[in-house]
Amino acid sequence: MNPAGPLLSVEGLVVHFDAPRSAFGPAAPPVRAVDGVSFTLARGRTLGLVGESGCGKSTTGYAILQLVRPTSGRVVFDGTDVAALPAKGLRPFRRRMQIIFQDASASLNPRMPVGDLITEALEIHCLHRGAGRGRRVRQLLDLVGIAPHLAERFPHELSGGQAQRIAICRALAVEPELIVCDEAVSALDVSIQAQIVNLLQELQRELGLTYIFISHDLSVVRHVSDEVAVMYLGRIVERASRQRIFDAAAHPYSRALLSAVPIPDPDVERARERVILIGDLPSPANPPSGCRFRTRCPEVVEACATKDPPHKFLAPGHYAACLRV
Amino acid sequence: MALLSVRNLTTSFATDQGLIRAVNGVSFTLEPGEVLGLVGESGSGKSVTALSIMRLVREPPAKVEAELLDFEGTDLLRAAPRALRDIRGSGIAMVFQDPMRSLNPVLSIGRQLAEPLIRHLRMEAAAARRRAIELLEMVGIPMAEKRLGSYPHQFSGGMRQRVMIAIALSCNPRLLIADEATTALDVTIQAQIVELVRTLTKNLGTAVIWISHDLGLVAGLCDRVNVMYAGRIVETGPVREVFYRPAHGYTIGLIGCTPRVDRVGTPLKPINGLPPNLMDEAPLCPFLPRCDVAVPACHQTMPVLRSLPGGHSAVCLADLTSHHRGAH
Questions:
Q1: How confident is the model at residue A3 (pLDDT cuts 50, 70, 90)?
Q2: Which is nearest to B184 in space by CA: B211, B160, B157?
Q3: Which among A9, A312, B60, B157 is least buried, having the fewest CB atoms inside 10 angstroms?
Q4: Distance CA B156, CA B162 (A)
């Protein structure tokens, strides 16, 4: 363990998915889900990864965990490039990096009582052998606010919030350092969402966890993140501290995205200037030349079509990929 | 005269486990051109209220009862099926969350646009086609004439929802019900669709009921808002009254647990516990087990609707003036 360096450093991450092979005609171009993503994340911090459907935020999360293998690029976790490791060598790292999905009832085995679901995680990684294992399961359930008698229940007997607590519990069981939360609170009603958000924040303080919080909901991201990266068509277009991104976003896409989020306050909401983008997201199999956002950008100039904008330094920790900033 | 009057609407579903009261005594009126928000969480009865008004819940197993269910002088509860079909689409139109499931996948967009025009407005096929092109242009679909022959799967999610809106507004309904119509869309597309519906209905003078779990959307769009919990309207009033001077424990809870994109710092205040089981008829306020502002009287009597200043009323026994934060 190297406590000085960042826990995670992603360099030039690329994930391309081949299009289904057709027997006739030329092969379709691959879908460029993630197309050159780089960032570092310090221990104990939360990075919010935001963007719309199809921007590659979930694929980035999966590629960090090696759930999909990157096409190229490095994923350096605590000093080791896990993208270069063979499947066998990944086992110890799997314990240290976990994921929580959106739909807990779909990610929990419906035929196993929840207590067994958590025990299984301990068995796989040979943790807390013998009598200590049952004690550890009860302790873990307590940690996520689940009463011990619920350990006998099956996932379908739980409410959505309880099922998400079990998913969190199972991720925590193996004592990870990094947890990718992939839309982990998006399917929940706000009153339950607030319970889970608070739980994730308490656990982070208690256990020193590092989160990558993937979400399309910018209000929640503002609430949980230390830093935010905005993605568009497989690229990070802007990255900054929470305060900078929400108060001084520089990239036109970040600004449009933020202005589109409704605010539950009638006077504020009605007084706002809203940037309404024209059109839909282009296909990630055939992204526009130059800047990928140029087809929808309200501030586009001629140079945007030919020049791929590099990340420009704006302030410590604040970068944006736009020719006009 | 009110466009829509609903008094004591109750919709229950018979199940093997017992009777589920999805809507439990809902009353409200809607004036022509008014924009009403219906907010609440999953299972609060928002959608079933709308479907009951449209008489689109299957009976049995459901049972829809009301003292009054009146749309422009027609008793929707006792109207003949044919009269109801006349109202659906031309009097009241509805846009649902998932356009892929409400559009017919095997019919062209043009055919689906023409259908209500021919059925309700008795248009000839050629006139319906011309009108369909105008409607597609109205909702901002480029190359409208070419797209008439396209099928739903050839459109993006946002474009499909535009088509749904074109169909819904094609016969100039007096009431449009948007049931989580933008929930499945990305925020930038949601902003497009919301703006489209807002402008079109304003120009046409259409009343709108926005059903949404998103308080922000309702805050920006609605004149009045009904807050629903456990099948009941627990609070109703002008949107500024409800957001700045909430008068029900649930509304306070809902506002307190909703994160805001324009603000940091304040920890979220979750509402503890879970929504009640709609099978058990509660003799007390259904929100009591989760309420942070309950007073001793809450444990003795069922609250009734109490009128407050500003055209605002709530079903709550607690005095909540100390929770009001006022306008900015």
A1: low
A2: B157
A3: B60
A4: 10
Token pair 């796989």 in the structure block, residue: A124
Q: Do A264 and B216 touch (CB under 8 A)?
A: yes
Evaluate whether residue A184 is within a structural domain: yes
* Residue A186 in domain: yes
Question: What pLDDT digit, counting tens, does each position of B219-258 carry?
Answer: 999 999 999 999 999 999 999 999 999 999 999 999 989 9
ipTM metric: 0.84
Domain count along chain A: 2
Whether A275 and A212 share a structural domain: no
Rounded to a whole number of angstroms, the distance from the CA of A197 to the nearest CA of chain B is 8
Q: Domain check: are A99 and A145 in the same one?
A: yes
How close A227 gets to chain B, by Cα (Å)?
13
Residues 6+ apart with CB under 8 A from B313: B235, B236, B237, B247, B305, B306, B307
For residue A118, the enclosing domain spans: 8-17+30-225
Identify the DSSP state of B134: H
Instruction: Copy the structure tokens of residue B216.
Output: 């922000």
Residue showing tokens 């570092």? A40
The predicted model gives B272-294 an average pLDDT of 85
Domain boundary residue among A168, A193, A225? A225
Q: What CATH code would you report for B4-222?
A: 3.40.50.300
Report pLDDT for A4: 65
The rounded Cα B62 to chain-centroid distance in angstroms is 20
What the block records as the tokens of A256 is: 């449009």
Comparing C-alpha atoms, which of B183, B166, B189, B212 is closest to residue B35? Answer: B212
Domain endpoint, select from A193, A225, A257:
A225
Q: What is d(CA A47, CA A38) in angstroms, rounded to the nearest whole number?
A: 13
Q: Is the pLDDT of residue A20 over 80?
A: no
Domain membership flag for residue A87: yes
Summarised one tens digit per residue, pLDDT across range B32-50 is 999 999 999 888 999 999 9
Residues of B in contact with A150 (CB under 8 A): none
Place of tokens 């379709």: A28
Candidate from A52, A259, A263 with C-beta closest to B186? A52
CATH at A204:
3.40.50.300
